[in-house]
Design a protein that fits this description.
Blueprint: E1 9-10, E2 24-35, E3 40-44, E4 53-58, E5 76-90, E6 107-120, H1 126-143
Parallel strand pairs: 1-2, 4-6
Antiparallel strand pairs: 2-3, 2-5, 3-4, 5-6
Length: 144
């Protein structure tokens, strides 16, 4: 039995609802808003297109190392952290970045996380990231 840290699982933000409370995950998301009074960063990643998941990331443990650019709306960031309890925001209009042609979603699932690391994704090619993660998921599924 190991006493080391839990392994981190690389996922898409849309996979958060299927993650267990306390699971350690890593994902890419786009900042849609930041609440400085609570230290909560809200991230979304509209992939697949029908996704209605928002990650409410508690960054209070990272405030000393967090860069101001990491909290700017539209910034893509990598997050590593622990999944917290789930909740749903019903009937609330989705806030943040909307892409052309995207419709308002009447129900937004919010998953809370406690971040232990957060860093800028820089000039990531989001479509290549999505494709690579889907291929990885397919390989993992066929290996089982």
């Amino acid at each position: 039995m190991s006493n080391g840290p839990l392994p981190t699982r690389l996922i898409l933000l849309s996979d958060l609802p299927s993650c267990a409370h306390g699971e350690k995950v890593r994902f890419l998301g786009c900042v849609t808003r930041y609440n400085a009074s609570t230290g909560t960063l809200y991230l979304e990643h509209a992939y697949p297109a029908s996704t209605c998941v928002t990650a409410a990331v508690d960054v209070s443990l990272l405030l000393e190392t967090l860069k101001c650019t990491d909290t700017q709306v539209g910034e893509w960031v990598n997050v590593m952290g622990y999944v917290q309890a789930a909740e749903e925001e019903k009937g609330r209009k989705r806030q943040g970045v909307r892409h052309e042609g995207e419709k308002e979603k009447s129900q937004q699932e919010v998953r809370k996380l406690q971040a232990v690391m957060l860093w800028s994704a820089g000039g990531v090619r989001v479509w290549e990231y999505e494709k690579a993660l889907e291929m990885r998921k397919g390989m993992e599924a066929s290996a089982k």
